[in-house]
Known about the structure:
By secondary structure, this protein is mainly α.
Amino acid sequence: MGELEDAVMTRVWKWNRPVTVREVLEDLQQERSIAYTTVMTVLDNLHQKGWVRREAEGRAYRYEAVSTRAAYAAALMNEAWAQSDNPAAALVAFFGMMSEEQRLALRDAVRMVQGPETDEPATAGSPGSTGSTGENPGSATESDGR
């Protein structure tokens, strides 16, 4: 997903209501020169990808976010990870870029995905285990169909 798509989605989330191409255009024009047709195309692409829904209003559409910013960020990470020819190495490099605060958030997220702690350690044959460490977060992201 490109920089312009991200800028458009940021506006859609910011307003938290159905928005028109014109509204997004006017907000983006405060930062850069951009054409109406460009914003219209980006919103159409986001609609086709399932990130926004739209409803006709006269001859125009109003667009509204389908999911949260967190789900969007997760999809971006999953997309980038899926393009790697060595997913484990990509994860190691990504984790190495994280701040301590981000690593703590990652640990919390892994705990949430794995479910409540038990007295027994997880084994390769336990439900939800892929048999190797570090892959559960990715498989959880992929299980939502994105």
